[in-house]
Write a structure and sequence with these properties.
Length: 153
């Protein structure tokens, strides 16, 4: 004799699904009955007023603003050559720490006192701690890195 494919869990889920469907149908019928009683059908037409809000009354035509399609510009404003600031990429600073065995260190910028990481691959001259150097900044994986580091005399 074969075992029934209909398990207890499956039958419970089916009962819940049918119960939910019946409750939904009853709610819909109750809403229809309430609408018939009150005589309201809701908003038949929805209008958008001059502020962008939905209303059931048409908007006032005197507040309508006429916009010409040619006057709408969708672009990024062009920057003029006179608007651009000249930024000197070469900065000066002092080596605060450098480990030659590991090949990295830190340089403190003379202008804003920020520390920048430097690696031996970005060095032009040999550097040591407390040396005055000039360098350029480049975006690295964890922030700005000092590259093209040269020793100042």
């Amino acid at each position: 004799m074969a075992k029934s494919q209909q398990t207890f869990n499956k039958s419970e889920k089916e009962k819940k699904r049918l119960k939910k469907r019946e409750e939904k149908r009853k709610k819909m019928e109750a809403r229809k009955a309430a609408a018939k009683e009150s005589g309201k059908k809701g908003i038949e037409f929805a209008y958008v007023d001059h502020d962008g809000n939905l209303t059931d009354t048409p908007p006032d035509p005197s507040k309508k603003i006429k916009v010409e399609a040619e006057s709408i510009e969708i672009s990024i404003p062009k920057t003029l050559e006179s608007d651009k600031e000249e930024i000197d990429p070469v900065r000066n600073g002092k080596v605060s720490f450098f480990d030659s065995s590991k090949g990295f260190g830190f340089i403190i910028d003379a202008e804003n006192q920020e520390k920048y990481f430097t690696h031996v691959s970005g060095l032009i001259d040999e550097i040591a701690e407390n040396d005055k150097v000039s360098f350029e900044l480049e975006k690295g994986m964890k922030g700005m890195n000092a590259v093209k580091v040269t020793l100042l005399k």
